Amino acid sequence: MKPVLKMSVLAATILLAVGCQDEKAAETKPAEPAKVEQVAAEAAPATFATEDDKAAYAIGASLAQYLAANLDQQKELGLELSREQVLAGVTDVFAGNSRMTTEETQQALQSLDQRVSEMAQQQAQAEAEKNIKAGEDYRAEFEQKDGVVKTDSGLLYQVETAGEGDKPAATDTVKVHYKGMLTDGTEFDSSYARNQPATFPLNQVISGWTEGVQLMPVGSKFTFVIPPELAYGSQANPSIPANSTLVFEVELLDIVKAEQPMAEETQ
């Protein structure tokens, strides 16, 4: 956990505490519809006595928004902090009457750091195991379809359209249209959506692509089902979870030939 995350316990408190107070006020006295527009109009232009006050408020608001989102991430892990206790800590410190020493505060934050880290690891492990099982089930079902071929590496492919052009080598640069999906159908990338074919060296992509596209004559369209060990493995990113089996629809449009250097003219 970064130091900023530890600060979220303090900063998010302020935001959450204000929210709690607002909620309680709303429960005590519901706003009258006729006055809603009036209140909004009165609150619209924020005014401050000085530019320093405005800057200070902006710093607090920005920090609170960022750290509140951080606190929400902890909640997603299953860790819920008491808003009342967080508010009490802030209030006591500002009043110079903290119930914890500096050492006790640091120990509590270190314990929080460890718990969050452990919970995140457990969640990631559970997600990875779920993705492994989902991928195995999907590949087993796909393998039973007519025309599906499984290579020695475990790559699965199905010819949708058979082309008649040359097949690329691993060292070639290819021009393709493609769509990438997770096994649940979630699309994470698509040259079709960008309306722009992709061009790249075939030996600089995931190994499932390097192997699979070499099987395609120019003009072909294949569907590839790539196990995680031929894709991104245990590496996760925002659009592709760890240990994901990936499904690609690929059209090989062309093999891009390197430009030949022009011969020097002889005098």
Automatic annotation (TrEMBL):
Reactions mediated catalytically: [protein]-peptidylproline (omega=180) = [protein]-peptidylproline (omega=0)
Domain spans labelled PPIase FKBP-type: 171-256
PROSITE patterns reported in the protein's UniProt record: FKBP_PPIASE, PROKAR_LIPOPROTEIN
Cross-referenced InterPro entries: PPIase_dom_sf, PPIase_FKBP_dom, PPIase_FKBP_N, PPIase_FKBP_N_sf
Segments crossing the lipid bilayer: none
Coiled coil: 102-129
Protein family (similarity comment): Belongs to the FKBP-type PPIase family.
Name used for this protein in its record: Peptidyl-prolyl cis-trans isomerase
Species this protein is from: Photobacterium lutimaris
